[in-house]
Specification:
By secondary structure, the protein is of the alpha/beta class. The chain has 13 helices and 18 strands. The chain has a 7-stranded mixed sheet, sandwiched between helices. A 4-stranded antiparallel sheet has the order 12-13-15-14. Strand 3 and strand 4 form a beta hairpin. Helix 8 runs parallel beside helix 10 and helix 9 packs antiparallel against helix 10. The chain is globular.
C-alpha cells in the first residue's frame, strides 16, 4: 500500500492544472509535464467527473468511446471515496488540507461520526452544522471568481440545495439538469463563453456499480448513458473549449459472503468510520486484524497518505489511530455499514485509486 501521488499525478493536480491555466496560479502543483501535455490550452474548460468510473473499468464494452478518449491516468486521493474527492475539486487541496478525511467522518466538535453525503449521524439524524462553511476558503470557485473567471457546477436536479451541495459549491454558480439530454444541452451552452470552468457531475456509474455490480444490466446502461453524454459533448464542443474527464474513485466487487461484519464486542471503546475497504478506528485496532481478512496500519505509518502541505486545523482531531485495510476481495463492516452494496471502494488498490484522464477538444 502506497499513498497516492499528490505531486503531479493526482486528481488534485488535475484541478490545479486547470485553475493555473485559467488564472495563472493554483493552490496545489499542476500535473506532471507528460500529463499536462495531453490537455490542449483553452479559453474554457469543461471538467466532467464520472462518479465511480475507475480506469480499470474502461475495458467494459460500453465504455469503448471513453477508452478511446483516454490520454493517461491520475490517482484519487486517500481514502478513495466521493465526498473526499469532490472536496478536493471544490478546494484544489488534498484531503489533509481541506479536512474532509473520509466519507464517514469523525467530528469531535459534535462528538459524532457524520455521513458526509447526507450530513446526518450514521443512524440518520440531521447534524446541526454549518455545511456551507465546512471547507476552508477561498475555495476553487472563489479563487476563480476573484480573478474574473466564472465557475459553474452542473449536477442532477435532486442534488440541488442539499447540505453537500451547499458545502461543495460555495461561491459557485449552480445549474441543474433533469436527464442526460438536458445535461448535454446545458453543458454545451455553458461552455460557450470564454473564461469559464464548467464542472459536470455524472453519478450514474457509481450507483449502478454499488447496487448492481459490474456484470449487471443496470451497470451496462449506466456506462452507456455516460458514454453517450461524453460522445455528444465531444462532437459539439464550442470553439475554444476543451473537455477533460476523470473520476473520483474506482470500484471493486465484494460478494456478500466476503463482507465481514464486526461483532458487538468489537465496538466497545472504539469508534469506527471511513469505508468498508479502509475502516478507520479510533481506539485499539491491531488485535481486531488477527481475526479478520484485513491488515492493521497504525496512523504512525500513514504519514502523507492524505496529502502534503499545511494540514487543516482539525486534521489531528479527525484522523484515526489506524485503519483496517480489507484484503483483496473483502470488506469489513461496522454495525451501521450497509451490507446491500456489491461495489465498494475506499482502499488503495489500483482498481480503487487509479482513474482515467479523458480529453476531447473542438
Amino acid at each position: 500500500m502506497r499513498p497516492p501521488d499528490y505531486s503531479g499525478g493526482g486528481l488534485v493536480n488535475l484541478v490545479a492544472e486547470l485553475e493555473r491555466r485559467l488564472v495563472g496560479r493554483s493552490a496545489s502543483p499542476g500535473l506532471h509535464p507528460n500529463l499536462a501535455a495531453t490537455i490542449p490550452d483553452a479559453d474554457t474548460y469543461l471538467l466532467v467527473l464520472c462518479d465511480g468510473l475507475g480506469d480499470c473499468q474502461l475495458a467494459h464494452p460500453e465504455a469503448s468511446s471513453l477508452a478511446a478518449a483516454r490520454r493517461g491516468t491520475v490517482q484519487a486521493g486517500f481514502p478513495t471515496t466521493t465526498t473526499v474527492s469532490l472536496a478536493t475539486v471544490a478546494t484544489g487541496l488534498p484531503p489533509a488540507g481541506h479536512g474532509l478525511l473520509a466519507y464517514q467522518l469523525w467530528l469531535p466538535e459534535v462528538g459524532q461520526v457524520a455521513n458526509t453525503i447526507k450530513w446526518t449521524t450514521l443512524w440518520g439524524d440531521p447534524l446541526e452544522m454549518d455545511s456551507e462553511g465546512f471547507l476552508p476558503g477561498p475555495n476553487t470557485w472563489e479563487r476563480l471568481t476573484a480573478q474574473g473567471r466564472e465557475p459553474i457546477a452542473l449536477q442532477p436536479l435532486n442534488f440541488e440545495d442539499t447540505p453537500l451541495t451547499r458545502m461543495l459549491y460555495r461561491g459557485c454558480r449552480r445549474e441543474a439538469y433533469a436527464d442526460a439530454a438536458e445535461a448535454v444541452t446545458a453543458a454545451r451552452q455553458l461552455a460557450r463563453p470564454a473564461g469559464r470552468l464548467v464542472f459536470l457531475y455524472l453519478p450514474q456509474v457509481d450507483f449502478a456499480a454499488h447496487v448492481g455490480g459490474q456484470d449487471s444490466e443496470m451497470y451496462r446502461r449506466a456506462l452507456r448513458l455516460t458514454a453517450d453524454v461524453w460522445e455528444a459533448l465531444a462532437a459539439s464542443l464550442p470553439p475554444g473549449a476543451v473537455m477533460v474527464g476523470t473520476a473520483d474513485h474506482g470500484h471493486v466487487e465484494i460478494p456478500k459472503d466476503r463482507q465481514v461484519r464486526l461483532t458487538k464486542a468489537d465496538h466497545l471503546e472504539r469508534i469506527f468510520y471511513g469505508d468498508p475497504r479502509a475502516l478507520f478506528v479510533r481506539g485499539e485496532g491491531a488485535s481486531l486484524a488477527e481475526g479478520l481478512p484485513a491488515t492493521w496500519v497504525p496512523f504512525t505509518e500513514m504519514e502523507g497518505w492524505w496529502g502534503p502541505g499545511r494540514p487543516h486545523p482539525r486534521f489531528a482531531e479527525r484522523v484515526p489511530d489506524g485503519a483496517l485495510f480489507a484484503h483483496p476481495g473483502y470488506a469489513v463492516l461496522h454495525r451501521f455499514s450497509d451490507d446491500r452494496l456489491i461495489g465498494q471502494h475506499g482502499g488503495l488498490t489500483e482498481e480503487e485509486v487509479r482513474v482515467p484522464l479523458l480529453v476531447a477538444d473542438g
